[in-house]
Amino acid sequence: MAKKLRVGILFGGRSGEHEVSLLSAASILKAIDRKKFDVVPIGITKEGRWLASSDANSLLEGNNGAPSRKLRAGDPEATPGAKLLHEGIPTLLAPVPGPQGPEGKAIDVVFPVLHGTFGEDGTIQGLFELAGIAYVGSGVLGSSAGMDKDAMKRLFAQAGLPIVKHVTILRSEWEASPRKATARIEAALKYPLFVKPANLGSSVGISKAHDRKELGPALDEAAKYDRKLVIEQGVGGKKSPARELEVGVLGNDNPKASVVGEIIPGKEFYDYEAKYLSEGSVPVIPAKITAAEAKQIREMAVAAFLACDLAGLARVDFLMEPDGKRRIYLNEVNTLPGFTQISMYPKLWEATGISYTDLITRLIELGVERHREKNRNVYSRE
Questions:
Q1: Residues 126 and 171 in one domain
Q2: What does the record say about how the cofactor binds (predicted)?
Q3: Is 314 within the bounds of a domain?
Q4: CA separation, residue 93 to residues 37, 42, 43, 68, 213 (Å)
């Protein structure tokens, strides 16, 4: 009988997408194949404390990581600022015999379900690389590129992929001279505009500016979340907005694309509220597009995945002009998309023929495969 892999499901974190991460993790923990995997829940509170086992489950239940048992003097958890999980990160980094779970057993692979900052941007991936731990998803470079919308667009352009017109400005530039920054934006782009923090996900901090009056507040909002601000020219018009199409990509060096889906937002655009809070947005899978358009979008999705050196999984988002030429623009890649059973990425693969549980299994296998491939590298001349 094959040894069961010990999988750490890592969730929570310090980002603005903490709550989304909890939803994704709870869904994975419920659906993961327990016949194949021993599962260790690992939580990170909004303050950055690492939690394991029952304390991690407490975080999932909305208790913000409050210890599940009464603390006694001398317990590491009772010490202000102490980290759980056997003192947290230092133990997770133990190179021999491996990262230790709460029972002192080695974790074979980590499934990070950390959306946004400090989880999807290459930082936690760097931690895993230093520790020599197998993990699900893209590496440091791919995660960083997939998180930074400015760097991402540069890679897309280098690969010859069609993207919308955009301008990137720094927060310091906007704060030092709002008039000059506004003039620069308006000289390059036409309203309506989408204003985004360069490094954030789940549409947090994104606003649509229809005119100059709305541009300033939109830039102020985005500037709360990042030092780089990306301003994109809208596709389509108010009466005929752009169609929002999405594809799931799965694999490492030879990735495959799912069927194409479409999101019909319940609001003017697919912002955080439309994604997670309101019930008006409607997913359509497969999208009602031609076979030629679907083929083009799937090929572009794989090309975007490779351009950013991604691995494991990604949801790739597109914009299509609603009328006329129906031109298709690559919008962005999401290296750790929402992962509840009703999230778009799993639903796209379910429509393609891979169940939710099987998708989790395949992603863990891909993480192990990528780690094995990386271990072929030689880091010393001796």
A1: no
A2: Binds 2 magnesium or manganese ions per subunit.
A3: yes
A4: 21, 14, 16, 25, 50
User: In this structure, what token pair is assigned to residue 71?
Assistant: 């603390």
Contact assessment for residue 109 and residue 9, using Cβ atoms and an 8 Å cutoff: no
> Do residues 220 and 165 lie in contact, with contact meaning Cβ atoms separated by under 8 Å?
no
Going by the annotation, the residues of the binding site are: 149, 194-196, 202-203, 232-244, 317, 331-332, 334
pLDDT exceeds cutoff 50 at 71: no
Query: Quick check: is 147 in a domain?
Result: no
Predicted local distance difference test score (pLDDT) of residue 104: 56
Domain range enclosing 222: 165-233
Q: Are 221 and 255 members of one domain?
A: no
User: Per the domain annotation, does 375 fall within a domain?
Assistant: no
Name the pTM for this structure.
0.86
Concatenating the DSSP letter of every residue in 223-247 gives: HTT-SEEEEEE-SB-SSSBPEEEEE
Which residue positions form the known binding site for ATP?
149, 194-196, 202-203, 232-244, 331-332
Residue 116 has what pLDDT?
85
Task: Render pLDDT for 20-46 as a digit per residue (tens, 0 to 9).
Answer: 899 999 999 999 999 999 999 999 999
94 pLDDT more than 50: no
Kindly list the catalytic residues: 17, 202, 343
The pLDDT tens digits for 103-135 are: 556 789 999 999 988 999 999 999 999 888 999
